[in-house]
């Protein structure tokens, strides 16, 4: 077969997910994946470092997308508005196939190493967003908080979308989740502190 056979990368991704689902991640080898995809193991390694990375293909592209969106968002936008734009872009890229997302998540959930790799991926995206916000002159603390909030919103929205039985788009679920967060924080901001005005220490609320 040709060295750069068209569609090999996508076929490898689909073959791997099918085998991980049918046989289990640990029981599936690179040779199994390559055979199912109709390519050689050598071709597999031209595209992926190991079988684990098949499930995390595109992480670098997502990090680049985060930076690009932050850079192109109007300078007058607030940190949370920038985060909302980033989440919308990520949802557009990752929310095109709910069934595949469910299958992928099931494989990851069943394997400790994969769960750790997923957390590393999420942390890397959060760090990329934090750094990009700092480049917009957002203060360190606010940049970190906004990025962590964005990560939490996306995790919650992605889980809801993955388990939903309706036809809602991931972008819609992300927007609804972010709106709920804004309403929650607005309600908390307007609520009087218990016990009157304190000095803001933890013991004021003990």
Could you give a short account of the major beta sheet? none
Name the quaternary structure. single chain
Low-confidence stretches: 193-206
Q: How many β-strand stretches?
A: 0
Structural class: mainly alpha
- CATH fold naming of the largest domain: Tetracycline Repressor, domain 2
Into which percent range does the helicity of residues fall?
A: 55-70%
In round numbers, the mean pLDDT is 87
The CATH superfamily of the largest domain is Tetracycline Repressor, domain 2
Tally of individual helices: 9
Terminal Cα span:
69 Å
How many domains, as an integer?
Answer: 2
Question: Approximately what portion of the residues adopt beta-strand conformation?
Answer: under 5%
Tell me what the structure shows.
This protein is mainly alpha-helical. 68% of the residues lie in helices and 0% in strands. It contains 9 helices and no strands. The N and C termini lie far apart (69 Å). The C terminus is likely disordered.
